[in-house]
């Protein structure tokens, strides 16, 4: 899989909050079809790095190139890039004033300019895929956290993105709902979706990731296959982290 | 995220200048509303019935004024909503220039009494442009209340979690698409009740326009009183009519609020 083309190219990206280095000269390539899981202690810059991939964060130095487009270039229309980059948030962020179906249809019609019928057709398939077809006409307030997060995933997929970003998608969920969300993500990864996932779910990381990125203090400290990382890392900080969580 | 246990914030004191809006769970206010409403109506009827001279004459003379009061109030409300929305969006704009202009508008207008603004637009600016008194009244009230509405809009929009904007933007929606489809529809719910309050406040403040020779309810009363010298009787009637109107309005705003919270 490593010989396929690079979809996300992150080059020497740094970001500061005053004196604090949120991102410290990070370089990383993510290839088509790859599932990359970013792990690390809290405050290590995982989410900041993920959010810089669709310009939800500003950066102070470096470049992020998505499918050949430099997204921090002033001339780039970031909205065009974001159409291709789906994002799932820790806090779901479904639109509470719209039904599940309307949540999925909104950006399809407004941004992708699909007709209502086209959008609804796509939405129905996706709702079936994430297992909440029967909730299509409910408002999100009536759904559980796990269901809302699956709506959010379907909503992002409805844009037919080239890559999906997951920012701690299960951290706000009750334990019994984590599985249903991880199942959907596993299915997506198996289908060949390019995914970047920030998570604390080590089981998921070990099972689904093609590559693990370990971050600490804003820098990529170690990376490798799940086997290399979990069982054979020589890095002291990675070892310490693993000893604390496993 | 709110932490439970540790230092709890004191409850916010919410007192507005609008009429007290009766809600079912506030029994005291609810009863007071009924007493005031039934009382005011009964007194009006009793006065007209038992002492038609001069009360019946007064009440025949006032409807034209009620009409003008409503006309000025409704026109001003609609226009101030437009000003308020524009200025409110300006206040949260990232663009320093737009933000600066909007903030300046809000600060200046809120710092000058409405009565002075009315005088300024009618008499001071009247030196350059002569507009009918009623038009001046509506412009002054709208500009003034627009500034207060702007703060309501700003607060209502600020209250929407940032994640909503991030989710919309991450789907490729532009800033204006996000505002239109995601932020404003949600903000309306929090905005409507205080806007209802402003509506009532504006109706009461509309009595100030009588000073510009606009024949509103108060002005009509004054006209009647200055001819008949029945000052006590006339202003009693005027006060009672204002009271009945604001009580009805506050009831309507209360009903609207309940409707909105039921929809959740």
UniProtKB/TrEMBL annotation, chain A:
One of its GO terms (molecular function) is ATP hydrolysis activity. CDD domains: ABC_HisP_GlnQ (cd03262). Keywords: ATP-binding, Nucleotide-binding, Transport. Residues 8-242 form the ABC transporter domain. Pfam families: ABC_tran (PF00005). The keyword Metal-binding does not apply. InterPro entries: AAA+_ATPase, ABC_ATPase_HisP-typ, ABC_transporter-like_ATP-bd, ABC_transporter-like_CS, MetN_ABC_transporter-like, P-loop_NTPase. Gene3D superfamilies: P-loop containing nucleotide triphosphate hydrolases (3.40.50.300). Belongs to the ABC transporter superfamily. PANTHER family: AMINO ACID IMPORT ATP-BINDING PROTEIN, PHOSPHONATES IMPORT ATP-BINDING PROTEIN PHNC. This is Amino acid ABC transporter ATP-binding protein.
């Amino acid at each position: 899989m490593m010989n396929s083309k690079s979809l996300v190219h992150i080059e020497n990206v740094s970001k500061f909050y005053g004196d604090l280095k949120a991102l410290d000269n990070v370089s990383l390539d993510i290839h088509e079809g790859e599932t990359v899981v970013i792990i690390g202690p809290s405050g290590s810059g995982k989410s900041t790095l993920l959010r810089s991939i669709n310009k939800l964060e500003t950066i102070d130095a470096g470049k992020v190139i998505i499918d050949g487009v430099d997204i921090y270039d002033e001339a780039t229309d970031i909205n065009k890039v974001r159409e291709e980059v789906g994002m799932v948030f820790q806090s779901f962020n479904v639109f509470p004033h719209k039904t599940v179906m309307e949540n999925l249809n909104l950006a399809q019609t407004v941004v992708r300019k699909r007709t209502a019928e086209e959008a609804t057709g796509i939405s129905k398939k996706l709702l079936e895929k994430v297992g909440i077809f029967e909730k299509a006409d409910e408002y999100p307030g009536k759904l559980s956290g796990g269901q809302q997060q699956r709506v959010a995933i379907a909503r992002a997929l409805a844009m037919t993105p080239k890559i999906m970003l997951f920012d701690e998608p299960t951290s706000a969920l009750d334990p019994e709902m984590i599985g249903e969300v991880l199942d959907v993500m596993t299915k997506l990864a198996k289908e060949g979706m390019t995914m970047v996932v920030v998570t604390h779910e080590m089981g998921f990381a070990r099972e689904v990731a093609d590559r693990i990125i370990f971050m600490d203090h804003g820098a990529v400290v170690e990376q490798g296959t799940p086997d290399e990382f979990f069982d054979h890392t020589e890095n002291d900080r990675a070892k310490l982290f693993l000893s604390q969580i496993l | 995220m709110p932490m439970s246990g540790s230092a709890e914030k004191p409850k916010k004191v919410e007192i507005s200048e609008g009429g007290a809006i009766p809600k079912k769970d506030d029994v005291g206010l609810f009863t007071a509303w009924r007493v005031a409403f039934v009382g005011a109506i009964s007194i009006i009827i009793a006065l007209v019935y038992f002492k038609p001279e001069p009360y019946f004459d007064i009440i025949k003379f006032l409807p034209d004024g009620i009409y003008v009061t409503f006309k000025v109030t409704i026109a001003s409300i609609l226009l101030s909503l437009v000003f308020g929305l524009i200025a409110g969006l300006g206040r949260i704009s990232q663009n320093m220039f737009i933000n600066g202009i909007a903030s300046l508008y809000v600060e200046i207008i809120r710092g000058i009494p409405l009565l002075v603004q009315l005088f300024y637009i009618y008499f001071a600016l009247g030196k350059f442009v002569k507009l009918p008194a009623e038009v001046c009244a509506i412009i002054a009230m709208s500009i003034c209340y627009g500034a207060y509405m702007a703060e309501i809009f700003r607060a209502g929009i600020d209250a929407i979690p940032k994640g909503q904007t991030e989710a919309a933007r991450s789907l490729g929606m532009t800033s204006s698409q996000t505002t239109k489809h995601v932020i404003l529809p949600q903000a309306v719910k929090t905005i409507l009740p205080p806007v209802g309050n402003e509506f009532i406040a504006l109706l009461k403040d509309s009595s100030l326009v009588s000073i510009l020779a606009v024949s509103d309810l108060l002005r009509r009363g004054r006209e009647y009183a200055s001819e008949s010298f029945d000052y006590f009787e006339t202003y009693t009637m005027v006060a009672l009519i204002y009271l009945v109107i604001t009580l009805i309005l506050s009831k309507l705003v209360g009903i609207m609020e309940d409707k909105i919270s039921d929809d959740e």
